[in-house]
Amino acid sequence: MPEITWEEPYCAESSNCFRIGTDADGNAYIAVAGQEDTYLTDTRDALRNLIQDIKAGKADHLL
Q1: For the chain, which residues make up each domain, given as ranges?
Q2: Which of 27, 32, 54, 60 keeps 20 to 30 A from 13, CA to CA?
Q3: pLDDT digits (tens, 9 = 90+) for 27-60
Q4: DSSP the chain
């Protein structure tokens, strides 16, 4: 298992909390808070783009 540095959990109104983490190799991770051993991983750039798209409303149809 990679050594992941997790940020504080992010919790939106009435929804699950999630955490974003990074490792020394430039990978980014996202997991449900409390379930950090089950995560999705990709590059930091890919995670940054995902977050920017979500903030821009491009994923609203998935909710």
Answers
A1: 5-57
A2: 27
A3: 999 999 999 999 999 888 888 898 888 888 887 7
A4: ----EEPPPEE-TTS-EEEEEE-TTSEEEEEETT-TTS-EEEEHHHHHHHHHHHHTTTTGGG-
